[in-house]
């Protein structure tokens, strides 16, 4: 779904399954009869009422998500028809998927790129095509593997976390400049930096526990 298609879908109006009244595709309930609706074919940003940008307001994201989920709590539908219970569960599932995607910078960047027509496959496993990135990853992974004290691994872990944050800032700048090629390249880089940071944290935890 490209950005233009996503915008059109979010603005569309469909008939309510219950009363046939007009319902916006992102609406949870029909404004005419109050019946819960099935999840519309809209993008994650629209589903949570967020602007399609990398620099999202995390507090607003949390507020929107939990606010919607409260309205879909199973207790509210205990006395409803099987269809309404099923639709409320489908809405909740779609909201969960949207939230899990948008709250993580890496997933959010890849998803936004996809909306803009430049797909980045975060699940692909294989050789890194960028020689410089490959060399960087090999050196950093070797440093983590060779770390022989809590002090050393703590420093490496902090450095890795800082690089992740810096990369996220560069991704933001690339999106703001409309440079999707650079945003895509940096998103791939963020994938590997995040993995390194996780490896460093895991080793730090293991070494710290061994001293107790």
TrEMBL record:
PROSITE patterns: DNAJ_2
Pfam families named among the record's database cross-references: DnaJ (PF00226), HSCB_C (PF07743)
Keyword Ribosomal protein: no
Molecular function terms from GO: ATPase activator activity; protein-folding chaperone binding
GO BP term, pick one: protein complex oligomerization
J domain: residues covered: 43-115
Coiled coil: none
Alphabetical UniProt keywords: Chaperone
Signal peptide interval: none
UniProt-listed HAMAP family: HscB
Family: Belongs to the HscB family.
Subunit and interaction comment: Interacts with HscA and stimulates its ATPase activity.
Function: Co-chaperone involved in the maturation of iron-sulfur cluster-containing proteins. Seems to help targeting proteins to be folded toward HscA.
Protein name per Swiss-Prot or TrEMBL: Co-chaperone protein HscB homolog
């Amino acid at each position: 779904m490209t950005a233009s298609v996503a915008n059109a879908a979010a603005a569309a109006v469909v008939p309510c399954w219950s009363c046939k009244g007009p319902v916006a595709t992102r609406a949870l309930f029909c404004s005419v009869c109050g019946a819960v609706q099935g999840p519309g074919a809209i993008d994650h940003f629209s589903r949570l009422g967020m602007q399609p940008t990398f620099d999202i307001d995390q507090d607003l994201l949390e507020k929107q998500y939990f606010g919607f989920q409260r309205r879909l709590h199973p207790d509210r539908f205990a006395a409803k028809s099987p269809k309404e219970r099923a639709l409320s569960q489908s809405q909740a599932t779609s909201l969960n998927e949207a939230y899990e995607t948008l709250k993580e910078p890496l997933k959010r960047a890849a998803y936004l790129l996809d909306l803009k027509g430049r797909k980045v496959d975060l699940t692909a496993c294989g050789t890194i095509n960028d020689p410089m990135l490959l060399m960087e990853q090999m050196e950093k992974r070797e440093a983590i593997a060779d770390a022989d004290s809590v002090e050393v691994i703590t420093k490496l872990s902090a450095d890795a976390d800082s690089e992740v944050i810096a990369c996220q800032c560069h991704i933001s700048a690339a999106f703001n400049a409309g440079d999707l090629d650079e945003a895509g390249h940096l998103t791939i880089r963020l994938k590997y930096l995040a993995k390194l940071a996780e490896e460093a944290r895991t080793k730090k935890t293991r070494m710290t526990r061994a001293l107790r």
